[in-house]
Write a structure and sequence with these properties.
By secondary structure, this protein is of the alpha+beta class. It folds into two domains: about 150 residues, Phosphatidylinositol Phosphate Kinase II Beta (2-Layer Sandwich), CATH 3.30.800; about 170 residues, Phosphatidylinositol Phosphate Kinase Iibeta, Chain: A, domain 2. About 40% of the residues lie in helices and about 20% in strands. It contains ten helices and 17 strands. The strands form four sheets. The protein has an eight-stranded antiparallel beta sheet. The chain has a five-stranded mixed beta sheet with strand order 10-9-12-16-15. A hairpin with a 4-residue loop joins strand 2 and strand 3. Keywords: ATP-binding, Kinase, Nucleotide-binding, Transferase.
Length: about 375
Amino acid sequence: LSAPSRASERECLSTTGRRSRTLRHRFLWKLRQKWKLLGLFEINGEHEFYDLTCMLKVGLRAAIQEAIDNPPYKRAPPLQEGEQGFEMRTYGGPAFAHFRHSMGISETEYQLSLSSQSSYLQFISNSKSKADFFLTNNKCFFLKTQSKREIRFLLSNLPKYIQHLERYPHSLLVRFLGKNHLQHKYFIIMQSVFYPDERILERYDIKGCQVNRWTEPAPEGSQVIVVLKDLNFEGNSIHLGQQRSWLLRQVQLDTQFLKELNVLDYSLLVAFQPLHADEKGQNLSFSDFDLAHILAQNRRLLPRCKSPLHLLDGPEFRYFMGIIDLFTVYSFRKRLEHLWKCIRYRDQTFSTVSPSDYARRLCQWVESHTV
């Protein structure tokens, strides 16, 4: 080959190599993005909930804009979206706006997460609940459908709920941030306990009992996210070191509050991920330095990271912990269910017990499974 043709060949090979590397980088990037959505389903144009989530975004953008434009959080009328052909109602708007402000949540960032052009994600839960679960695309906020009874229960107890979280800012209770009604569905917006979730190894839903508390784990290598239960956790421990005493007291405080609300069947979510070397034994800080408030409010050292309220660092692992599903009242029907289960599941523990027994049992579970 002549010199020019050899140079041309080298240039061609170089171009081909660059194109190959670019394609490989794109493939790996798409693979990483797909990995981040494991167990979740993007609500795209072909999804059954696509139109619903689009309306949610439009309505929520307008509702949050009302809070941004009116700092005193004046009571807003139901949102009318005439051009879009739907109406969305907001419940407890001023109270939730004030609560978000007290938590230091930026209304602008909150609005951006909930009304982003990126698609919502659907989470298919292995729980018995018939509710639909959506996540914002950044996985920071959960949206869950609820019954009218559950909505009424929370709204009637909203002052007590906010009071408890203001008294104990590091409470394990999930943070409810808003309630809305759209297309015959009621939605509650809450912070995700498992955020950020990229490195989580296992997730558990704990109720402190035995009956129906086993879930078949996902096959090895499966992409499905399975939330395991009490019996799956047996043989494991939560290694917290110095933070164990804080956790025991906070679980007591939170379950005492739930007992006063006469509720049961709530769950303690637990997940864990290994700590990197630079995360061990450091990056902790009090949210303020008033010692009297730290003691009275049972504050703790928080990790310096995103959404630290539900994170506890042990010597080797970071644990995600939060109490969810706070709406099951110990009604006459539940009392009858308790009597039936006493006969059906003799000598076994089950979830339908009195609020005082339920609270005591969950505290005992935490105490016996932490070191």
